[in-house]
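RETRY 2/3 - previous attempt timed out on the joint model. Re-submitting the same 301-residue input unchanged.
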Amino acid sequence: MKTLLNYLEESGVGEELTHVVISLADCVKKIADSMDKSHDGKAGSQNVFGEEQLALDLIANEIIVYEMEQNKHVGIVASEEMEEEKSVGEGEYGVCFDPLDGSSLVDVNLSVGSIFGIYKTKTFFGVRGDNQLASMIAVYGPKTTILLTVRHGVCEFLLRSDGEFVLTRENLQVGPGKMFAPGNLRACSKRKDYLKLLDFWAENNYTLRYSGAMTPDVAQIMLKGKGIFTYPGYDEQPDGKLRLLYECAPMALLMEECSGMATDGNLRILQKDVESLSQRTPILIGSSEEVQRAMDMLQNG
Ligand code: P6P
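RETRY 2/3 succeeded.
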């Protein structure tokens, strides 16, 4: 079976980006191991978003930052768990990440993930998702898997018991199909357009698949090849909850590489400039047909 390294070498992305992706895959292995040790206690701190940090959030963050400090090609990192971007060396690459997306689900033993965006940049201020050279998500579930794009389509890799990531699927495509992952349902109390979209899905026998962690929910859409994930805003949260740099832009690149779409209801996610590292954005992501319908039915994302 083809390993992640074989795939990267054959994809012709070059030694430097290959080294960065392999480093991140090594982080995924270490994070998966750390979860086996059930660090699901609270860390007693909050991140910049005021969200309670679990020991596991911080452990995952430290694993990635340490690994990036050892990688001579990486110069800067930014994490959902850190207030500022951090210089880690003289490398040309920048890596941004949500180290453990959905971490609050670990103590109820549901799948969680890590999300990575890779740029050639000295700062994340002013970048946009279209500038990403690659993006990758890891899903920590019954299996540990990675979905990766280096802009040659999207592939899935499985972490095998011998520690190798092996290629299990390639050229994932997302098309029509009745599956929906509706986040932020609380918005329905103020947004009748969102309620109307939910009614459409219910009245047309769509299958509900929502776990509370964006990474496995969006991975499912790519792997099943159909569906839509939504997390709109409303008056109390006009930009929703999800972060542009750390969550939505990396996911948007993967979805567009699967022939899908990702918008904030008006703009492509990948063309939104990162003005602040903590910037949030509404997101509609999935099959082009479903995202276009949602855009038509929702007045403003
Ligand atoms: P809600 C997890 O905390 C997360 O950032 C995403 O992974 C997930 O889709 C969303 O928040 C869940 O938000 O409002 O349903 O709890």
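The CA atoms of residues 233 and 240 lie 4 Å apart. Closing ticket.
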